[in-house]
Write a structure and sequence with these properties.
The complex is a heterodimer of chains A (about 100) and B (about 475).
Chain A lengths: L4 H10 L6 H19 L22 E2 L9 H5 L10 E4 L4
Chain B lengths: L2 E12 L36 E2 H13 L3 E2 L2 E2 L2 E4 L9 E4 L6 E10 L2 E14 L3 E4 L5 E5 L6 E7 L6 H18 L11 E11 L9 E4 L4 H20 L7 E6 L4 E4 L12 E2 L6 E2 L2 H10 L4 H12 L3 H7 L3 H13 L3 H15 L12 H12 L5 H14 L3 H7 L8 H14 L1 H8 L6 H11 L6 H11 L2
Chain lengths: ~100, ~475
């Protein structure tokens, strides 16, 4: 087994997902399958191969420090579950 | 039992760029909420971040100024967590391969120099701002600050007291101000400091359990919070208790640290390389170009003030402790080329009212201060009156010439005018006059004082001394 039920629960908690017992029972072997499949890569000998994070060779894609127009506020707030015309409104987080 | 305090600081310096780190939104402070956002900083699907080149240049500058090693390859990583001020659900930061590592700074306390290690400095984006409703269980999210470029600068746990921590913080503050990469405003949060503090029995190698302090938005609060936490941990340990690893907020109203509710849970940021951003390669040419553009830093400037202007080390150190103050001082010297007198006046009169970091809040311009000192030089006013005029300038921002004229403060240097008053004073005080003639020259102070009182401080002091000596013979 690549992953335990406890690990699935933890990953779910970190992703703010509420999973039922049935869903955990269903997902654990599925995730295990995926991880086992990816683990095949471990069989390769990567001795001496530099760490690769990107699959293409481009680097140094920059923009100059120039201000561009921002979104109108109505548009920025348009997808909010709750807003007051100025700000996103969320349940109180601290205090 | 004797304890040793161990402190490490994490500093977030907001970069003074015009636009955000990965998009073209303005970084201007104080705009109406949510008016400086776009699909990139809002984390909308399909948007792509592109790195602001100036942020990398600023990182190189900081690395050079702190003797850090610059990583030739830089990568960005995603730091994953959920919080309402973070719209993407992750912060773009650097994890492996930050821009700078293994740096150092020298601090000085009571003439004792000490080197403090800098673990690393990395580029990242700031989060938004939360405003909590006083009455209702709601918070309001303003995402203008989201994506503002930051350099996070992490020190080694080399600091052994709150004083050392503040000295290090001030030194670093001075550096980012000299480099002009951060405006250093602690109140507005553009220079923020978190501290890790722990205590261990003296002589013990292993570190004690630490707490992390946040919400200290001034040098003074950093000092007070660390002192408080140092005492609190010592009391806990002396009572046989254990320090609990936690994040504490400094409350400047109660002068206490308080535990932070809400955000307390085990963190697991699951960093991984951000596939949206390509690696950054920094070559020798780039580093040398930035090095060539570096401004004169505090240390070099202090040396120049000592060598070229003949200032004592402590005075030169004070004047160069902030770039604004050093600039102001040099600007005054342009119009009044007497560094010793200028530095004396600044040390005694100006720094009593404004700290080196706040010098730009002072309403008196360098030109005005030079004009005031010129008036003393030309005997238009006495040095004493100059202090009164300066106090007035600090209040009104008026030119010294105007104040001196309006208030009739021009020095009395007319011998004929003064000698009449001098004779009057001698006649009115025969006992003191006799004492003087008997060799008690100390009473001269009394006579000059009388004259100053009668002339409201306007008598030329050198002339006053001369006239009394002459008339008392």
């Amino acid at each position: 087994m690549k992953i335990t039920k406890q690990e699935v629960e933890r990953v779910a908690a970190l992703a703010r997902l509420e999973l039922s017992e049935e869903e955990i029972a269903q997902l654990t072997p599925q995730l295990d399958n995926i991880l086992s499949y990816v683990a095949k890569l471990d069989e390769l000998d990567t001795e001496g191969v530099p760490v690769t994070t990107h699959t293409h060779s481009q680097n140094n894609a920059f923009r100059e420090d120039v201000v561009r127009e921002s979104l109108p506020r109505e548009k920025a707030l348009a997808n909010a579950a709750k807003e007051n015309g100025e700000a996103y409104v969320v349940p109180k987080v601290v205090g | 039992m004797e304890f040793e305090t161990v402190i490490g600081l994490e500093i977030h310096a907001q970069m003074k760029t015009k636009s955000k780190i990965f998009c073209g939104c303005s970084t201007e402070f104080g705009a109406p909420p949510n008016t400086h956002t776009c699909p990139v900083c809002l984390g909308m699907p399909g948007s792509l971040p592109v790195l602001n080149k100036q942020v990398v240049e600023n990182g190189i500058k900081l690395a050079l100024a702190t003797d850090s090693a610059i990583n030739r390859e830089n990568r960005f990583a995603r730091k994953n967590y959920f919080y309402p001020d973070l719209p993407k659900g992750y912060q773009i930061s650097q994890f492996e391969l930050p821009i700078a590592e293994h740096g150092q700074l020298e601090i000085e306390i009571d003439g004792q120099k000490k080197t403090i290690g800098i673990t690393r400095a990395h580029m990242e984006e700031d989060a938004g701002k939360l405003i909590h409703d006083e009455l209702e269980p709601k918070s309001y999210v303003d995402l203008n600050r989201t994506g503002t470029p930051l350099l996070e600068i992490v020190s080694e746990p080399d600091l052994r007291s709150p004083e050392e921590a503040v000295a290090y913080l001030k030194k670093l503050h001075g550096i980012v101000r000299y480099l002009d990469i951060c405006d250093g405003n602690m109140q507005e949060g553009s220079f923020r400091c978190d501290a890790n503090i722990s205590l261990r029995p003296k002589g013990q190698e292993e570190l004690g359990t630490r707490t992390e302090l946040k919400n200290m938005n001034s040098f003074r609060n950093v000092q007070l919070a660390l002192e408080y936490e140092e005492r609190r941990q010592r009391d806990v340990l002396l009572d046989g208790g254990e320090v609990i690893q936690s994040t504490l907020l400094w409350n400047p109203d109660t002068n206490r640290t308080e535990s932070m509710r809400g955000k307390e849970e085990a963190h697991d940021y699951r960093y991984f390389p951000d596939p949206d951003l390509v690696p950054v390669h920094i070559d020798e040419d780039w580093i040398e170009r930035v090095r060539g553009d570096l401004p004169e830093l505090a240390g070099e400037r202090k040396q120049r003030f000592m060598d070229d202007m003949g200032l004592p080390e402590d005075v030169a150190a004070t004047l160069t402790s902030s770039r604004d103050l050093a600039d102001f001082f040099e600007q005054v010297c342009v119009d009044y080329d007497n560094p010793k007198k200028v530095s004396n006046f600044i040390s005694t009169e100006l720094l009593r009212e404004y700290s080196p970091e706040q010098i730009n809040d002072c309403p008196v311009t360098a030109t005005q201060l030079a004009a005031l000192l010129q008036m003393v030089e030309k005997n238009t006013i006495s040095g004493k009156i100059a202090k009164t005029v300066f106090a007035d300038m600090l209040q009104s921002g008026d030119d010294p010439e105007k104040i001196v004229k309006d208030k009739g403060l021009v020095q009395m240097s007319d011998e004929g005018e003064l000698v009449a008053i001098v004779r009057e004073i001698i006649a009115a005080n025969p006992d003191q006059a006799q004492q003087f003639r008997d060799g008690k020259t100390k009473v001269m102070g009394f006579f000059v004082g009388q004259l100053m009182q009668k002339t409201k401080g306007k008598a030329n002091p050198q002339l006053a001394n001369k006239l009394f000596a002459q008339e008392l013979k």
